[in-house]
Amino acid sequence: METVIGHIARWSTAKQIDIDPATPGRYRFADDNVLTIVREHNGNDRIYRWRRVHEAAVRGDVWRTTFTAVERPDAPGWLWSEIETIDGNRPDPSSPFACMSVPRVLRDLLGKLTCYDGKTQMTAEPQWVARHQLPDLMDYLADDSRLGAVYLASQGTRDIDSFVAWATQVTWHLTGLGSVFLLDNTMNREFNEMVGTGHAVPSGTVRTFLPRVELDDPRDPQRHKILGIGRITESSPRRLAGMLGLIERTRGAGAALPAEAVDLDRDLLAREDGPTIIQPTGLRSVTVAEAVMASRPNEHHGDTADVRVLREELDRLRAELTRERTQRAAILDHVKALTQEINTLRAGDDIDTSPRQRLSVS
């Protein structure tokens, strides 16, 4: 747990969030951001959540950022990260900016922690497959407890260095969502011999294997799509990365979360409306009078300042400020009403099916 909190501390500091992530509480910022930190025990289990909500987010903004971790003394724990945006129109899948990027903190955590999706180890970088690992790879593919996809990338005609660089770029947005394995040409042939033609990975391509691969089912190969040579040749790695990232996020957003995660999430969300214990601000407050004086020419700053002009300008600024506060309050009330309505609808569902871009690790 300390590893998770330590990495979030460095990441949040880089984001200029000056709140200790190890200190539980609810913090409201002047820019309509609310940060909730939970750190507690449930029996012998340790529970941690860092959740930032931008209440006044508009289209394209990051709306909510959530990291949840559970640590157990005698059983595997789990880590779940989730980034939610205020979505506008559905982005073009071929756009290099079609999906939310994986936060740096998640890449760093995958480099420090040993994480699994079902039986499959998840890493921040693609993993090479050696001959002795082929039986394990077959187990990963057949695993029905796996949530994310397994991606197998074939070397084809590329040399080793260029293949690794290309595969890393193309799968950049899959970190935390799926597991990426690299097949050199020898392992590619041996893998294809093991699985047969229906589930084979053509040379130089990338194949997506969804959970619960069934080699004996003649209909099963249709579920596992191939990124073919034609698309690879005509598209840049960045464009392919955006396409794969959006596809996996769309699939993950519609997938059922583990019941344990759903229950814990519902419990923590129900307690989010608690009192705000602090209102930090990163900037010194400036009064309206100071703002007016700062905006006037130097000749108005002395004893000869035109008091009447200053008062008129001060009244105008106060009126504008009042209007803006009224509009802002109305917007926030509307956002809160919608949030309450969403939470009410969620409470009636067994599974949260809201359209999100999930970045999750088990």
Compact description:
The chain has 362 residues and is of the alpha+beta class. It has helices at 2-14, 104-112, 134-142, 160-170, 185-195, 229-234, 237-253, 259-270, 288-295, 307-347; strands at 25-28, 33-42, 45-54, 62-71, 78-85, 115-117, 120-122, 127-128, 150-154, 179-183, 206-209, 226-227, 357-361.
Descriptive overview:
It is built from 10 helices and 13 strands. With 362 residues, the protein is α+β, with helices and mostly antiparallel strands. The chain has 3 domains: 119 residues, no CATH class; 163 residues, Glutaredoxin, CATH 3.40.30; 60 residues, no CATH class. The protein has a 6-stranded antiparallel sheet. It has a 5-stranded mixed sheet with strand order 8-10-9-11-12. Helix 1 packs antiparallel against helix 2, helix 4 packs across helix 7 and helix 9 crosses helix 10. The two termini are 14 Å apart. About 10% of the residues have low confidence.
Characteristic terms for this protein:
362 residues, alpha+beta, Glutaredoxin, five-stranded mixed sheet, 10 helices, elongated
- Under CATH, the topology of the largest domain can be stated as Glutaredoxin
Domain tally: 3
Mean model confidence by pLDDT: 81
The H-and-E topology, N to C, reads as HEEEEEHEEEHEHEHEEHHHHHE
Oligomeric status: single chain
Distance between the amino and carboxyl termini: 14 Å
Q: What's the SSE blueprint?
A:
Blueprint lengths: L1 H13 L10 E4 L4 E10 L2 E10 L7 E10 L6 E8 L18 H9 L2 E3 L2 E3 L4 E2 L5 H9 L7 E5 L5 H11 L8 E5 L1 H11 L10 E4 L16 E2 L1 H6 L2 H17 L5 H12 L17 H8 L11 H41 L9 E5 L1
Parallel strand pairs: 8-10, 9-10
Antiparallel strand pairs: 1-2, 2-3, 3-4, 4-5, 5-13, 6-7, 9-11, 11-12
Helix pairs in contact: 1-2, 4-7, 9-10
